[in-house]
Amino acid sequence: MEEKPDDGKTLLLLRHAKSSWKDETLADFERPLNERGQHEAPRMGAWLRQQELLPDLILSSSARRAHDTTELVVEASGYEGQVIFTAELYHGGFQSFIEALRHVPDACQSVMLVGHNPELELFLETLTGVPEHLSTGGLAMIALPIASWRELHEGVRGKLRGLWSPKTLE
Q: Which of 33, 62, 90, 136 has CB 3.0 to 4.6 Å from 37, enough for a Cys bridge?
C-alpha cells in the first residue's frame, strides 16, 4: 500500500457491505445487510484501524445497509470522530457527493464517504480517470490535490492510492 499523501486531502470511498434481498416487501432504502455483510463490515473497520487509515469525518448514506455498514465499521475500528448520515448520499450522483464534501471543514484532512453503486464507481472514475470495480464492502483511497474541500469540483483529478475488498484484506 502506498503511504498517505503529505499534502492535499484524502478521500476514502466505502461501498456498503453485502445487503439482503430476502424480504421483497422492503423498500430498497430499507434493505438490511445479509450475514456476509455483517461479517465483512467489521473486518474492514478493524483493517482501517490496523492500517491507520481512520478518517477525520465520515459521511454516510442514511439507507439502512449503508447506515449499518458505517456503524459496524465505526465499532470495529474504534473510530471516535463525527459521523453524518444523510439521505442525499442515497443514490445521489456526482453533484450530491461534491456538495456534501464541499461543506467539510478544512481541518479534516481525510473523509470517508459511504454509499452505493453505481454512483460510487462513477465518482471514483470521475475523480481519478480510472474505471475500477468497487465491490460490496470495498474501499478506495484517493489523494486529492486540494488544500480546501471547497476547491473540489468536477475538474479536480486525484490519484487512486489503493483499492481493497473484504476478500483481499490481509
A: 33
150 C-beta neighbours (distance < 10 Å), count: 12
Residue closest to 94 by CA, chosen among 155, 22, 165: 155
Q: Reduced to 3 states, what is the DSSP secondary structure of residue 149?
A: helix
Would you call the peptide bond into 5 cis, given omega within 30 degrees of 0 as the criterion?
no
Whole-model pTM over 0.85:
yes
In this prediction, residue 144 carries a pLDDT of 98
From CA 26, how far away is CA 150, in angstroms rounded? 37
Mean pLDDT of all residues belonging to the chain: 91
Domains and CATH numbers, the chain: 9-168 (3.40.50.1240)
